[in-house]
Amino acid sequence: MTDRLKRMINASGYKVWLAEVEALMYRHPAIHEVCVIGVKDGKRGETVKALVVPAAAHAGTITAKEIVDGAHEQMASYKAPRIVEFVESLPKSGSGKILWRKLQEEYAARTAGS
User: Which residues belong to any copy of the AMP-binding enzyme C-terminal domain (predicted)?
Assistant: First the structure.
């Protein structure tokens, strides 16, 4: 798996390529869109957070635990997201790419005061 270095986090000493995590999460039938970002974690250094747009058939019925459990079936435990946030939509560029950096910066700004 190759990706930009900025899209790699270090979780408890393990290198996690966020694009790989996203690709594996798309296998879950309840996920319409997903963006994975790295967030600060006091114990692990960084951890994996998934922002999920649920598929229309699963909206309101899928839980974060089900998403995490499904991820654990597809990937190593250190790669699986520990935090899942459901959103209505993900920000996109004019060409339709998900703006992961914007999501990362928004999360950092929200937690900076904490």
Answer: 20-97
The dihedral built from the CA positions of residue 54, 58, 60 and 62, taken in this order, carries a sign that is negative
User: Kindly report the CA angle at 93 between 107 and 89, in degrees rounded to 5?
Assistant: 55
Q: Residue 33 carries which side chain, given as an amino acid letter?
A: E
Radius of gyration of the chain (CA): 14
Q: List pLDDT tens digits, range 22-61.
A: 999 999 999 999 999 999 998 999 999 999 999 999 988 9
Instruction: Give residue for tokens 């560029």.
Output: 93
Rounded to 5°, the CA angle 5-93-32 comes to 85
Write down all domains in the chain, each with its CATH number in brackets. 5-112 (3.30.300.30)
| pLDDT, position 79 | 95
Q: Token digits for 34?
A: 């997903």
What crossing angle do the helices spanning 18-25 and 64-74 adopt, rounded to 10°? 110
Q: Read off the tokens for 16.
A: 């996690």
pTM of the model: 0.89
